[in-house]
Amino acid sequence: MQVGRFKSPTTIIDSLTLNTDLFTEVDEILNFIKKHLMVEYIITGEPHRTERFDYPLNAIREIVINMIVHRDYRDSSASIIKIFDDRIELFNPGKLFGNLTIADLLSNNYISQTRNKLIAKAFKEIGLIERYGSGIRRVLNICKDYGVKKPLFEEISNGFMVTLFKQKVADTDKVTDKVTDKVTDNLTENQKRIILLIQLNRRITTNELADTILISQRKIKENIRKLKEKGLIKRLGSAKGGHWEIIK
C-alpha cells in the first residue's frame, strides 16, 4: 500500500509505503491521511468541541477496508492512495469481482461476492466489516449525510478507483439546479434515469445503462440521441476510454 500527499500530479510532498499486516495497515493509512486533512473545530456548547474534517473519515475508513479485503493480490502492483488539494483518489489492483458492474453497485442490485474469502471473514469477525456487500452504499450515504459531493467510482487500468471530493454540496447547488431544471422539462422517465446514472458514473456504458434501466440497448441509444439533441449530455473521448458530460 502506497499513500502520498500531492500538490500536483507530479509533485509529492509526503509519502508512506506500508508492508505490514492487514489490520495495522488500516490504522496507519488513516493516521497518515488525517495528518494531511484540514479540520475545523465546532463549538457546540458542550464541554468538548467537535472536530469536522473536510472529508468524512468514516467513508475513507470504509474504502480503505474494502481496498484491503477486495484487492487482487495476484497483481504485483500496489494499492495507491493520492491526496490532492481538492480530492482523494484511492486505486486498487483488480476490477470488480464476479462480473459485477459499477451500475450494479450504484443500483444496489447485486449479490455480494468476494475474491478473498478468508480475509473478508477475518475482517468481519473482528468487527471491521459490518455486512458483506454493503460498503459502497454506506460510502454514498456517509458522503450524502456529510454534505460533500458524491464520490466517483471507475474501473481503470485493470483496477478499481474511488475518488472522494472535498467540495460541499452547497457549492454545487446552482449547477445541480440548472441540470434539474433541464431534466424535468419534457423528458421521459427513462431519459431522467439515464441522466441520473450518468451523474453517478460518467464512464457508464450503454450496456450498463440498459441492464440497470431494463430496456434494450437500441432504446438506450435512441434516448441518448434525443438527450444529445436537447443539449443535455455529450460524449468525450473514445467509446471505450471516454466519458459522459452533463452540459450545464
List the helices and strands and how they pair.
Layout: E1 2-8, E2 11-17, H1 22-35, E3 39-42, E4 50-53, H2 57-70, E5 80-83, E6 87-93, H3 102-107, H4 117-125, H5 135-146, E7 152-156, E8 159-165, H6 173-183, H7 189-200, H8 206-213, H9 217-229, E9 233-236, E10 243-246
Parallel strand pairs: 1-5
Antiparallel strand pairs: 1-2, 3-4, 5-6, 6-8, 7-8, 9-10
Helix pairs in contact: 1-2, 2-4, 2-5, 8-9
Number of helices: 9
The class by helix and strand makeup works out as: alpha+beta
Largest sheet: 6 strands, mixed
Radius of gyration, in angstroms, nearest whole number: 19 Å
Please tell me the CATH architecture of the largest domain by its name. Answer: 2-Layer Sandwich
Helix content: 25-40%
Query: Average pLDDT across residues?
Result: 84
Low-confidence stretches: 171-178
Span between termini? 38 Å
The ordered string of helix (H) and strand (E) elements is EEHEEHEEHHHEEHHHHEE
Number of domains: 2
CATH topology of the largest domain: Heat Shock Protein 90
Return the CATH class of the largest domain.
Alpha Beta
Shape: globular
Structure summary, number of beta strands: 10
Strand order of the largest sheet: 2-1-5-6-8-7
- Quote the beta fraction: 15-25%
What can you tell me about this protein's structure?
Helix 2 packs antiparallel against helix 4 and helix 2 packs antiparallel against helix 5. The chain folds into 2 domains: 166 residues, Heat Shock Protein 90, CATH 3.30.565.60; 76 residues, Arc Repressor Mutant, subunit A (Orthogonal Bundle), CATH 1.10.10.10. The chain is of the alpha+beta class and 248 residues long. Helix content is 40%, strand content 21%. The strands form 3 sheets. The chain has a 6-stranded mixed sheet, with helices on one face. A two-stranded antiparallel sheet has the order 3-4. A two-stranded antiparallel sheet has the order 9-10.
